């Protein structure tokens, strides 16, 4: 196995059987997968498609019916390799009557981390996940978002090389979600490998480099997110310093017609709702008591020429004209492209 391959599965298959050994469900069917060091990999699929089964197989909590799974080049059934893995399950199994410090100390002991390192890492992680002010409160009193934060700290207590996150942003508000995504990106920046499952596809698109989509236990697609979502049949042009007008549209139409295409939409690019939400909260904090002003109103009040607002034109091959749903899809795609990575 190549040195930079952290996770590899070869025809990995899991069939659940009932008490009598009769086949109940093929949860995973001949999965071939490689996850490389330092990447954030998303394992996606609808409910019941085999994601948790895959994770359990990688952690050695389940045995495959056939095929192989390797982590760090070792068979997944070898539980010793789990010392190099951090795992945030979808439902965290944390003790409700321990506080944050005690929780991290408890998990540190399970990994046989010496007391000084345990104490130092617990203090660092509590700050990193933003629970400094609540570290003495018992987890029973924590909100869902706070439990997710301590769950993540628990997953990182052994300074793992591979971090497996099952629905890391579930239950988090937009600020918590942004925080979690930044933390996942920070793990990558520190050279860690991240495998995450999530139904929140916006979050996956924001952080994952590559994804696999499972359906009913079968691998349906695998590749780079940017390549998979790219619409190679359309072209997007963004411009600034011009105002939207019928003349502009006619001129653009002529240019694109000359090159065999046609314009689908001309308009202003929009940001995502997440970006708007974060901006409103940021400005409310910075200027308490003042209402948020949308950019064009703020621009007007500071007398910056409105013509600096960018205009986006999206073109497509000349025929056939796009149907309304396709246009909508294209507009959404435009929004996506605008998002920060
Ligand atoms: N212990 C089990 N016995 C029998 N069938 C099981 C068992 N565990 C899971 N399954 C079945 O295997 C299939 C895959 O389940 P799995 O939990 O891996 O899906 P998932 O993609 O993680 O779903 P979700 O998104 O809901 O978490 C499902 O049809 C599920 O019902």
From TrEMBL:
CDD domains: ABC_DR_subfamily_A. Residues 300-317, 325-334 have a biased composition (Low complexity). InterPro entries: AAA+_ATPase (IPR003593), ABC_transporter-like_ATP-bd (IPR003439), ABC_transporter-like_CS (IPR017871), ABC_Transporter_VariousFunc (IPR051782), P-loop_NTPase (IPR027417). Pfam families: ABC_tran. Keywords: ATP-binding, Nucleotide-binding, Transport. One of its GO terms (molecular function) is ATP binding. The keyword Transport applies. It comes from the Bacteria. Residues 288-341 are annotated as: Disordered. The keyword Transport applies. Residues 7-241 form the ABC transporter domain. This is ABC transporter domain-containing protein. It comes from Gemmata massiliana. The lineage of its organism: Bacteria, Pseudomonadati, Planctomycetota, Planctomycetia, Gemmatales.
């Amino acid at each position: 196995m190549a040195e930079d391959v952290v996770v590899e599965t070869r025809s990995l298959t899991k069939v659940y059987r009932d008490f009598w050994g009769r086949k109940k469900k093929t949860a995973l069917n001949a999965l071939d997968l490689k996850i490389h060091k330092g990447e954030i990999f998303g394992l996606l699929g609808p409910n019941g498609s085999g994601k948790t089964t895959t994770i359990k197989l990688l952690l050695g909590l389940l045995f495959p019916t056939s095929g192989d799974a390797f982590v760090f080049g070792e068979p997944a059934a070898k539980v010793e390799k789990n010392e190099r893995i951090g795992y945030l399950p979808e439902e965290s199994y944390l003790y409700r009557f321990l506080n944050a410090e005690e929780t991290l100390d408890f998990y540190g002991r399970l990994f046989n981390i010496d007391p000084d390192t345990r104490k130092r890492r617990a203090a660092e992680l509590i700050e990193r996940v933003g629970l400094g002010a609540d570290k003495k409160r018992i987890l029973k009193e924590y909100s869902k978002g706070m439990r997710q934060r301590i769950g993540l700290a628990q997953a990182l207590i052994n300074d793992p090389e591979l971090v497996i996150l099952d629905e890391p942003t579930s239950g988090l508000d937009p600020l918590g979600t942004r925080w979690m995504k930044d933390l996942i990106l920070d793990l990558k920046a520190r050279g860690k490998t991240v495998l995450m499952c999530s139904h929140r596809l916006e979050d996956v698109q924001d952080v994952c480099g590559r994804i696999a989509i499972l359906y009913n236990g079968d691998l349906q697609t695998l590749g780079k997110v940017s390549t998979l979502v790219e619409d190679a049949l359309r072209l997007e042009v963004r411009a600034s310093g011009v105002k939207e007008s019928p003349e502009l549209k006619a001129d653009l139409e002529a240019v694109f017609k000359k090159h065999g295409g046609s314009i689908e939409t001309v308009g202003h690019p929009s940001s995502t709702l997440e970006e708007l939400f974060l901006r409103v909260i940021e400005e409310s904090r910075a200027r308490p008591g003042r209402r948020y002003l949308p950019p064009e109103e703020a621009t007007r009040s500071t007398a910056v020429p409105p013509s600096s607002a960018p205009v986006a034109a999206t073109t497509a091959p000349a025929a056939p004209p796009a149907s309304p749903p396709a246009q909508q899809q294209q507009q959404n795609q435009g929004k996506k492209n605008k998002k920060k990575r």
